[in-house]
Amino acid sequence: MNAPRWKIGEAARLSGVSAANIRYYEREGLLASQMRADNDYRLYGSGDLHRLRFIRLCRAMDMSLEEVRALLSLDLVSKADCARACEVLDDHLAHVRERLAELRALEKDLRSLRDRCDGAGEHCQIIEALHARADQAVPAPGGTGRRRHV
Q1: How many Å apart are CA 115 and CA 97, to the nearest integer?
Q2: Contact (CB, 8 A) for 45 and 4
Q3: How would residue 37 be classed by pLDDT, with cut points 50, 70 and 90?
């Protein structure tokens, strides 16, 4: 008896990963290119669904594609791979902690900005401050700003 195979729409429904993301993960090499049925539809098996769910879980934890790729390449029983998994998670935790610090600074800045105005004045101090910041905000040459991991 043949193992069950699903077309991309059904694989998306069963895995919780959109069809567009499934195609993207294939292009990125996180999911092997799938066999095709006679009608040229991609077909996915239960192993593919598990892998998609694994990817979805990791992405829900804000892991980068490289981190997901690293975890997918590891063996369940190898001590060295266990150490590598710890390393990947430690690195990711460092990124998360950095982002939390950035978010705390952002919260403080937003609170300070919000405290400038109570809505009762003749003009809005918040809007005024934002326009002043916009006048001072000059992008770095050749860039659009700092790229964040998470």
Answers
A1: 27
A2: yes
A3: low
Q: What Rg do the C-alpha atoms of the chain give, in angstroms?
A: 23
Q: Residue 128 contacts by C-beta under 8 Å, 6 or more apart in sequence?
A: none
Residues sharing a CB contact under 8 Å with residue 124, sequence separation 6 or more, in sequence order: 117
Each as own residue / partner, the long-range contacts of residues 11-15 (CB below 8 Å, 24 or more positions apart, any chain) are: 11/44, 11/48, 11/49, 11/52, 14/49, 15/49, 15/52, 15/53, 15/56
| Nearest alpha-carbon partner for 130 in 143, 112, 108, 145 | 112
Cα(50)–Cα(27) distance, integer angstroms: 18
pLDDT above 90: residue 54: yes
Instruction: Please report the sign of the dihedral spanned by the C-alpha atoms of residue 54, residue 52, residue 3, residue 34.
Output: negative
pLDDT tens digits along 91-146: 999 999 999 999 999 999 999 999 998 888 888 999 999 999 999 988 877 665 55
Quick one: tokens of 72? Answer: 């997918």
Quick one: DSSP state of residue 42?
A: E
The alpha carbon torsion through 98, 100, 102, 105 (nearest 10 deg) reads -140
